[in-house]
What we know:
The chain is α/β, with parallel strands linked by helices. The protein contains eleven helices and 20 strands.
Amino acid sequence: MDNKVDVLLGLQWGDEGKGKVVDVLTPAYDIVARFQGGPNAGHTLEFEGKKYVLRSIPSGIFQSGQTNIIGNGVVLDPILFRGEAVELAASGHDITKVLKISKKAHLIMPTHRLLDAAGERAKGNSKIGTTGKGIGPTYTDKISRNGLRVGDTLATDFADRYAAARNRHLETIRSLGADIDTAALEKTEKDWFDAIAYLHTFDIIDSEHYINARITEGARVLCEGAQGTMLDVDFGSYPFVTSSNTITAGACTGLGVAPGRIGDVFGIFKAYCTRVGSGPFATELFDADGHTMRDRGHEYGAVTGRERRCGWIDLVALRYAVMINGVTKLIMMKSDVLDTFPTIKACTAYRLPDGSTTRDFPFDISESAGIEPVYENITGWMTDLSKAKSEEELPEAFTDYIAFVERQLGVPVVILSVGPDREQTIIRKK
């Protein structure tokens, strides 16, 4: 009988700690495959006193023996990828033998970055708050059937295909009134083509055939998502979303895995909530509590360095994310950040402008929609969780908080993170 593949993804607005969890779970799998997103998604891992930030490379790369795959749903910047891989090699992690790249993954071109910047400037006060990495324009080219894929780099006429795409981009950039530094672009392009050559030192594969064959053989596969459910292009807080499907269904389209082969879905969330960039955030805090969360949680973007907006946990949004993804197991991260709060709030419903309340996530959660969070107060545990090594060492008030979350979401919490290091992880006896 064919194996099922498991999926691991974020349930909030990204930055939930997926990298650490993938690293912790990887020993149980033979293959870790990234299924969407690009170098805008920074996955941070800490172990043995060192800190690593992965952008495009799957987070299972640090465990021994596993195959890691960059799937067809990922958009890849060759320059950033090379920098990431070279940095890993310098730290003693040569990934050329354990990483495979899908031929169908789309390439981020130098002009995609220019398009990203020009498009954001043109929006004025309506900026989405992109990372400026060229992600959106690359996915736009993909959907409009104008993109370049990794497999195209193997063609004899690749230079011509590149030139056609480049010229089309430059025309659009000029139409937006943006200036183009031709000399800087040519320098970047030379670097880009050099990075393409470096890309060819890796195994470039028909990933959908490879993955499905390995599943049939009995291989255990973990599909790794980037960003979070509330940034999904269809089901997130549109238009303040990313350009891909960050949900479980994205693993099917981003790797070529049939829906019937999906097994467990691990949903990751923080014990509170954060968001980077623009967009609605019902439980956002602007007071001392929000600042405390940011400081204690080191809430700054791994890739951008931007301050993350912080707020109380939003269980309305989480229930929605659990439903959309078919989550079977929950993983709660950064529980230790709330150690110093005597009272913890959790949003369990939204109050609508007409005075009624709803537990369902509505179409519009923007400020103009007039939605207010309805909170329940929970007694804080006022204990340093970072020292806990087992479930038995956890304070009763904290286990009460976990039980409350489980009742609200209807799914068990199976893993707890109580610090940034891989060792600061508690597997619950459920």
